[in-house]
Amino acid sequence: xxxxxxxxxxxxxxxxxxGLRKSYHTGTPLEVEILHGLELKLSRGxxxxxxxxxxxxxxxxxxxIGLLDSATSGELFLLGEATSTMDDEARTRARxxxxxxxxxxxxxxxxxxxxxxxxxxxxxxxxxxxKTQTEHALGLLRAVGLxxxxxxxxxxxxxxxxxxxxxxxxxxxxxxxxxADEPTGNLDTQTAAEVFELFRRFNKEIGCAVLAVTHDPRxxxxxxxxxxxxxxxxxxxxxxxxxx
Length: 244
Hints:
alpha/beta, Rossmann fold, 4-stranded antiparallel beta sheet, 8 helices
């Protein structure tokens, strides 16, 4: 098993940012710094909301954390491993094994079935999925109420159901970190609440850390922790009080 795969031996600290900065057009007169020396830790089982006005750097931060983009300076530790020294192959492996992604627009492949879309990360990793992996994916689909739709094409199900498929796709590898960028932004209020409840459910059952960008105060208030980003700086990081 890869040291980045999710199991009981993994460290409690899933993510740590240390003086992380991100600039564009570096070394030119047009250089602009988007993220300014961020410090952040995220542990296993945490459900955190990332909030802030448009243009504050939330999506840029998610892209850097998700290893889709590189920091200009500082360090990002994923499961205790510094990522700045990783080559492209190692970054791709870490992204595929340790991180799940859910976006506002689910990016499902309409020519494939619900089950095939759910299995896509495993197919990318190792080709044809095993019987055990397929059963695991079907179990997740059952958990989100989509088992009976497993062999339907994704263009034949509703928007809320499609987003549930995207969540299963993100969780099928049992990642240590789940990143969500406005995952309920194009859903009605009731469906959004149901989808967000799935995040909390799997956050507890699988133990993955979740960092979700949202503009919906009702959703951010449902998280254990709210991190506010303004102009590329974390201005507050508040834990929600729990009631015994």
